[in-house]
Amino acid sequence: MSGADTADSATSAPPNPPSAANDVLQPHERPTFVTPRDFLEQGRPVLPPRALTAVDKEQLDGLRTIRAFLKVRTSYDVLPLSYRLIVLDTALLVKKSLNILIQNGIVSAPLWDSKTSTFAGLLTTSDYLNVIQYYWQNPDALARVDQFRLNSLRDIEKSLGVTPIETVSIHPERPLYEACRKMLEARARRIPIVDIDDETRRTTVVSVITQYRLLKFVAVNVKETQKLRKPLKELVKVGTYDNLATAYMDTPVMDVIHMLVKKSISSVPIIDKQGTVLNVFESVDVITLIKGGIYDDLNLTVGDALLKRSEDFPGIYTCSMQDQLSTIYDTIRRSRVHRFIVIDDDNKLKGVLTLSDILEYTLLEGEENE
Ligand code: AMP
C-alpha cells in the first residue's frame, strides 16, 4: 500500500485459554444458548447488566472529560491566530470554482450571495458529485453544464432529488459541543462559523470548522483521550463493518461516484479479488478528475483515476480491531487523517472508521445515561 501509514497497534490482550474440548460440563456449568426463536417469541432477552470493568469506567470517564471540554470551549477557540478564508460568490462559474479550490489546496468553501449580501451555504465535494450525476444523466447538455454557476447548484440538486447544499452553521460564541451536535444531526463533515450583527442582522462568515480540526483540537488539548483504552473490537459498533461499499481497480470511476452519492459516504476502499486493501477512492478525488470543467476522465477506471492524484497525497491510514481510540486520537494529533481503513493481519478489509464515527462515539456513547 503506497504511502500507507498505520496507527500504532495497541498491546493486545492475552489470548483466551484454549477451549478444553474434552471437558464435560456439569449441567449448572452449561452456557445458555439463545436461539432466533427466543427473540421472536419473547422480544429481546433481558440480559443482566454487565458490571463495568475498570477499563469501561476509565473509558466513560475519558468521554465525559472530552464532552465537558467541548461544552466550555467555543468555535472561536479552535481557530488559529491567523488563517485565510476563501469565500466564493454564487455568481461564479462552477468550472472556475473547481480551479480556485485546486489552486488553493482546499476542498470546500462558504458561498456568498452578493445580490442579497447573505451567506448562501457551504460548497462541498457533494455538490460537484451532483453536477457529475447531472451531466451523466444529460450528456447532451454539456454546453449547459459548462455554463453552470454556483447559484444553479440548487436547481441541479432539485432536478436530481438529492440532498441540497449544506446550510447548517454555528455562531462563533456557541459552545463547540453544539457545533458537534449540529454536524452530527446534519451528517455534515464541516460547519461554517457565521456571525450575525445584532443591529443590522447582516451575516459574516468567520471560518469553517471541519471534523478533523475539531478532533485534532480535542486530541491536542484533552490528555484524557489516553483513557480511551478499549480496543475497537470491544466497542459496540464504532465504524462500519457490514455492507461496505468497495470497488476494484478496474471498476469504472463513475460506478464509484454513484456509490459515494447513494450511500452518502466520503470514500470507497479499493480491494483486490481476495479482499486485500490496495487503495481508497475519496470523494475529494473527483475535484482533480473534473478540473477545468472537462468531464472526459469520468470514463476512466478507478486505477487510472487514482494515478491523477497529486504527488503530495498523504496516503492511507489503517488500523486494526485491536487498536484503541487513544491510539486513534494520537494519530489524529500527529497527522492529517480523515478515515482509518480497518484491516486484519493479512491486510484484508474489515471495516471503515471515519471521523464521523469517532465524533459520534465521542459525543453520544452512553449519553442517554448521563
Ligand atoms: P463518512 O462520510 O466517510 O464520514 O462516513 C459516514 C458513515 O458512512 C460512517 O458511519 C462510515 O463508517 C460509513 N462509511 C464510510 N465509508 C463507507 C463505505 N465505503 N461503505 C460503507 N459505509 C461507509
From TrEMBL:
Signal peptide: none annotated. GO terms for biological process: autophagy; filamentous growth; peroxisome organization; positive regulation of gluconeogenesis; regulation of invasive growth in response to glucose limitation; regulation of transcription by RNA polymerase II. Residues 162-224, 238-298, 312-370 form the CBS domain. Residues 1-23 have a biased composition (Low complexity). The keyword Repeat applies. Keywords: CBS domain, Repeat. CDD domains: CBS_euAMPK_gamma-like_repeat1, CBS_euAMPK_gamma-like_repeat2. Belongs to the 5'-AMP-activated protein kinase gamma subunit family. This is CBS-domain-containing protein. It comes from Paraphaeosphaeria sporulosa.
